[in-house]
Amino acid sequence: MLLETLLAYLHISAVLGLVVFLTAKVALLRPEVLAERPLLLRRLLRLDNWCWGSFAAVAATGLSRVLFGVKGAEWYASNPLLWVKLVLFAAMLAMGVPSRAALADWCRQGGIPAPDAIRGQRRWLMWQAHILVLLPLFGALLAYGY
Known about the structure:
Largest sheet: none
Radius of gyration: 17 Å
Number of helices: 6
Oligomer: single chain
Structural class: mainly alpha
Helix content: over 70%
Number of domains: 1
Distance between the termini: 20 Å
């Protein structure tokens, strides 16, 4: 039971880390903020690195729960809620790719991007954040045996 508790703790902590870094990116990726502080582009790129690290931590701890948790891999694999959760997580990853590419391009170019370009990338981040809200719901349903 201690192992199950530790696995749950690590998984929840990884999700909370993702929430923190994604929220920070959403807060800073606004035209009015970047216009006043152009050096924030580098910070946004570092935050993006932390976001991708958090994605990796969520995936690793989730896989650990499936493989080493009390319910076992067979139970999880046969539960459609896990597959919904994985599809939503994959969608979040896919939405992060354009944001990552745009941030890298903006840093290479060295200037402040157009406000419309910033708003477009912020829209991707907002979609990610809205999907992220659903993941703990499906996680709780899985944890309680639905």
